[in-house]
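Here is the promised in-class demo. Please do not try to memorize the tokens; focus on the logic of going from shape to residues.
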């Protein structure tokens, strides 16, 4: 089952994640208590998101921005790596989730019912080298020991971009040490790896703490691989169960509007945004303040320009071998079957 949902996840990791998923039905995976809206005119919605997702979903939760739009909402914070959230969604324990974009496409290939309804944040990933190793170029990673969250979009995307920009496969030409997002900070602090592939705020935590330095940021790898000087590739998106959308067709619009308001709070009410991030992620405040300034771009909606960029991302991800389905070669099918813009 684990391999069906998320490629590259070990049996041990799956069993750990399955335990978390099972807990979702009882206690929300030790999440904060579900917060229900005062206005309940549009019905009940169950939204879950990763504790270290860094996509402004935290702000939707704590400000109850879906409740503000008439939804009685259960918010569930899921710790650990993406597989727990993927399997919670696949089991229909929740109606909507934030999810890394490459994994969303993989879930679609694996026949998990979904529609992508909107974007949440641009790429958050980075390669952070251990400060005392002396790495200065991406090419110097060959043969090195690299920490990575296997099964994450950041890993798959960076692997794809390095292959296209530098011509080598980081998965095959380095020694990968797998772990969860928090493990990445521990691995580099204990000098058990030469570099890590991680995303905010974990990558920022390593840099602020003085254990590592940025070797390359994902946005720069994207620019080099594609030759695009503008636009923002998407790291995290929102997906919703199609059956739920059929019953509640306004939910996608309301979720996008809630995300837009959350992004506005992120940029115009920094103090409140940091306070929320601190409460949800449990990351030290100085790290979060640094991460806020390093964030490439929080996003919302699903514009024509964003759809075009997403289609290019899907094409590149298929070229890398991670995606297999014919649909990713057909932009019109993608627009019709994968996205929801109704």
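The designed amino acids, position by position:
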């Amino acid at each position: 089952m684990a391999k069906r949902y998320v490629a590259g996840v070990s049996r041990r990791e799956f069993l750990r994640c399955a335990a978390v998923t099972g807990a979702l039905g009882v206690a929300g995976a030790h999440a904060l208590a579900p917060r229900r809206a005062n206005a309940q005119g549009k019905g009940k919605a169950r939204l879950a998101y990763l504790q270290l997702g860094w996509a402004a979903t935290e702000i939707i939760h704590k400000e109850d921005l879906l409740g503000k739009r008439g939804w009685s909402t259960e918010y569930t914070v899921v710790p650990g790596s993406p597989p727990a959230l993927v399997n919670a969604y696949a089991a229909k324990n929740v109606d909507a989730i934030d999810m890394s974009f490459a994994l969303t496409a993989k879930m679609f290939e694996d026949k998990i019912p979904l529609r992508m309804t909107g974007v949440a944040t641009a790429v958050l990933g980075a390669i952070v080298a251990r400060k005392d190793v002396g790495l200065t170029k991406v090419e110097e990673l060959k043969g090195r020991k690299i920490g990575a969250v296997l099964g994450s979009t950041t890993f798959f995307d960076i692997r794809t971009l390095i292959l296209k920009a530098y011509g080598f496969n980081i998965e095959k030409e380095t020694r990968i040490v797998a772990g969860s997002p928090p493990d990445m900070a521990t691995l580099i602090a204990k000098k058990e790896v030469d570099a890590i592939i991680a995303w905010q705020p974990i990558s920022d935590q390593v840099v602020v703490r003085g254990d590592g330095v940025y070797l390359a940021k994902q946005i720069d790898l994207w620019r080099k691989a594609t030759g695009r000087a503008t636009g923002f590739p998407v790291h995290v998106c929102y997906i919703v169960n199609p059956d739920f959308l059929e019953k509640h067709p306004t939910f996608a619009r309301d979720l996008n509007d809630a995300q837009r308001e959350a992004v506005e709070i992120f940029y115009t009410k920094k103090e409140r945004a940091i306070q929320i991030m601190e409460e949800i992620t449990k990351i030290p405040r100085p790290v979060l303040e640094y991460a806020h300034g390093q964030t490439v771009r929080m996003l919302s909606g699903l514009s024509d320009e964003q759809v075009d960029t997403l289609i290019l991302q899907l094409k590149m991800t298929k070229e890398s071998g991670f995606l297999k389905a014919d649909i990713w070669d057909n932009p019109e099918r993608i627009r019709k079957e994968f996205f929801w813009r109704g």
